[in-house]
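yo

u said u wanted the structure for the complex thing, so here. seqs first:
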Amino acid sequence: MTDIATMPQPVSFGRRLKRFMADRPLIPLIILLVILVVILQILRPGIVNERWLANTAKFAIPLAILAGCQTMTMLTGGIDLSVGTVATMSAFIMATQIVNQDPAVAFLLAMLPAVLIGLVNGIGVGVFRVHPLIMTLGTSLIGTGFLQVYQRTVIASGAKIPDFLNWLGTGVTYGFPNALFLFVPVAVLIVFTLNRTGFGRLLYAVGDNEHAARLSGVRYWQVITALYIVSSLLAGITGLLYIGLIKAPSLSLAEPLVLPSVAAAVIGGTSIFGGRGGYMGTIVGALILTVLTTLLTILQMPEGGRRILFGFIVLFVTAAYLRIVEDR
Amino acid sequence: MSRFFRNQGWVAGLLALLIFVFVITKLIQPGYGSGDFGSLARAVLPYAFAVAAQTVVVIAGGIDLSVAAMMALTSVTAASMMNGASEEYALFVIPFVLAMGLVLGALNGVLIVVTRVPDIVVTLATLFVLQGAALLVLGAPGGAAAEWLKASVVGTAPIPGLPDWADAWVPKALVLLVVCLCIVWIPLRRSRLGLSIYAIGSNELAAFRSGVPVARTRIIAYALSGLFGAMGGLSLTISTGIGAPIPGPYLLASVAAVVLGGVALGGGKGGLLGPIIAVFVLRLVRTDLTLLAIDPNVTAIIEGAIMVAVVMFGAFITMRSRPVGATP
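structre next:
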């Protein structure tokens, strides 16, 4: 695939190629992903093997689900920055409640804050028309506060990671990470919802032209409230998966995933202004970011240098992608 | 006169709120005096500069997620340059760091204009870059600040012709803040450039068609934001005596204060006075909660809840005052 992109070709073919890519925005993304993997293989021959693939998938999946929350909210012109806090809360509550509680009860307790935060986000954005960025940042601040207070009350009982989450987070079956058992249904559900159901169409409609959607009888606040609750629930489930992967409950567990999840959705071609994009691109975006992180790690750069490169690459990829897709 | 109230109503309301919170503070702690006000002004200093940085960009219709990272980078740069250097050397450090902020901010603007990537993504990318650079400059909190600089925010400013009791209520930090902000803001507000910044925030297309150089104005707005960010970074170094490479909680605080200060997130509306008063209100509320001996973790919850409630209330008011049938 890389040969096609790099070989000099007559102009007309180049233009046709560009047109082809603009019509199928997934293809340039996948090419980029392949290029990154090839670079990785050149820098450290033999690194790309079955174990590496499983590991990459394991770390890409939590990011991809959180990026799914961003994709759906961004389709309506919103954003959900509370996903990190919600995921952390679910994970922390699960890990501490499982000590004394039945797993089912612990699970319900872990999902409770997710639903509550989603509901508050939805009401704030949908009914009171607060800017989603502010609303979700605010609720995440409140959530973190609650988590700190909660931590005091359970400090004596300790925490443990339930075996099931361990299995889900790090286990491998026939070379496939078990997290795929969770991710594939979730991804199929998101793609199906966005492309084939009325709710998905409402999200695109609201994001594309809110006024027109309202005039056509869409109940804006109901759509938005449902959306933010779904987004929060997904984030809560991601938290459970992530704690099985990281195995160390802390108060900032999923926080480092928030900004990359936005980046993954943007790289995947979802417009931050709403109305355009999809989940498949986002998945590829999450994979690109994960491979990129590996690449920067094996280059043995200092942490500072890695962050600088990460920032520039996110910017470069987004800019290049916009160039390809927008010149129709 | 009614026009004055319509334009300044929000600021007047905030001022009343500030006075109200002051009265409450005095009721909680009858001994609250000029000394406490001085420490409030010192605590507000970095927040106020962060808010100023955010305000300029938001008025121009953008948003700057890299504010806190910019402050971290400029702060560590200043602290490591002044470490072990002579007192006079600081005279060189300050203009250097301010120029650095201006250039890095302009870089934000140039990237937005050239790449056509949404500003939220560009500043997210530069957030990583600046954070990384800060870690490269100083791996752990350290460095130093010149003694005369540290003294410049402690104590009160003697103003001739003012009785001692009133003079005690004029802390140096407040004077420094007002002077720094006015030097940049007042000439800007009265110039053609300031008008252009409001114009591109209000309606970019209309501004372009009226002959406003949109790209140049946007770059300048971000450069000014960088300048304010550098002032914030310097004030951090000055008031703590060291530089810390990890960004503080200034991003969320700056956005919240901007909204609370009556600057519309869509751009084109509001001024600098509102957000600055809003910062004082938010910090003073925090002081009150500390004085009430409330657990600092609960304080975070209350603070977040206040921010969210205020923002919801503000959005509600704007919604009600909007003419019927207008596009939201």
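The radius of gyration of chain B is 20 Å. The longest helix of chain B spans residues 2-28.
cya
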